[in-house]
Amino acid sequence: MRCAMVCARHAVVVTHSRLRESGTVVSEAVDRLRNVGFEVSIIDNVEAPQFGGVTHKVDEDTEIVVVLGGDGTILRAAELVHCTQVPIFGVNMGHVGFLAEFESFQMSEAIRRVADHDYSIDERMIAHVDVWLPGAHEPLQDWALNDITLERADRGKMVELSVRVDDVEMSSFGCDGVIVSTPTGSTAYAFSAGGPIMWPNVKALQLVPLAAHALFARPLIIGAGSTFTLDILDDSSSEGWICCDGRRQCALPKGTRVEVRESKSTLRLARLSGVPFTNRLVTKFDLPVVGWREHARNGGSSAQRTRARGAADTAAVPSSGEQGVDHA
User: Fold this and answer.
1) Which listed residue, of 4, 119, 147, 194, carries a Cα 20 to 30 Å from 204's Cα?
2) Contact between residue 103 and residue 92 where contact means Cβ atoms under 8 Å apart
3) Residue 248 near residue 66, CB atoms below 8 Å
4) What is the DSSP letter of 48?
């Protein structure tokens, strides 16, 4: 009995109820984890906590959190391991799955390697946010793995913002809002809004204005030691609204100050392959690595390009003997 207690390994499977009810993939993953020696618990409905509130955490003896879903499910799972050392391992069941390590058809191989500790840890930067409401003596505190959005509360008006970096005034403008993104979130909402992609090993934050009423409102990138300060001006046409990772939200009255900087905590992602982020970027975005001019010169066809892309993607899938390498 003593040995069984000492040797027990605990895994948490995070998914969503729709996936659990629509097929057998969740039950198959749980059975495989149990067959390789894990005690398994399942969480399929992680409710969004209040902004600045205390989030539920996995038990301290949890060895790993296995996420079955897309990037949105991984963001929900991140709340369960925030400020812990428990790593997340993602199996993509969604559309893009930038944060997921394996695809669903690789489930058996993935679980075998998790059981063998055949993975490395990729530590992802997290953003910390302090929200100073008017007259408050202490800020509301929250965090984001992907991004923090500050938007207008009134859809028919603009929110007037002042932007500072390290307490130096940079700009002020009316806008639909701004996005402050981590490198991990640079391929998400910030990218859709025209921001640049940052490689995950870059220690930086970026700010992307949304429909700013200004001639020179361009994305800003600051180092991890710097701080963005956003003030909702007293004469703003609209009050504000803040949201972290699309989940934890809060209304912001005029006169609110928002400060965003690098968090002391990181998120630990389990990596099983040595595929660089660049390969993932090309594959997930289906980037045209052969331009139309080069294609015309080479006389190739679209079918040839498709076959070449498929061969490259296959080569990027880790084999059963490949060791996990810590690439960002």
Assistant:
1) 119
2) yes
3) no
4) P
3-state secondary structure of 134: coil
Closest CA to 258 of 170, 142, 157: 142
Residues of the chain with pLDDT under 50: 1-4, 303, 306-328
Instruction: Tell me if residue 71 is catalytic.
Output: yes
Say what the pTM is. 0.84
Q: For the CA atoms of the chain, what is the radius of gyration?
A: 22
CA 310 to CA 321: how far, in whole Å? 22
3-state SS, residue 140: strand
Span 20-61, pLDDT tens digits? 777 788 899 999 999 999 999 999 877 888 999 888 899 989
Rounded distance between C-alpha atoms, residue 115 and residue 38, angstroms: 8
Q: Are 243 and 73 in contact (CB under 8 A)?
A: no
> DSSP assignment of 167-218, as one string?
TEEEEEEEESEEEEE-TGGGGTHHHHTTPPP--TT--EEEEEEES-SSTT--
The Cβ of residue 156 has, within 10 Å, a number of other Cβ atoms equal to 7
- The span from the first CA to the last CA of the chain, in angstroms, equals 41
Which tokens go with 149? 């959005």
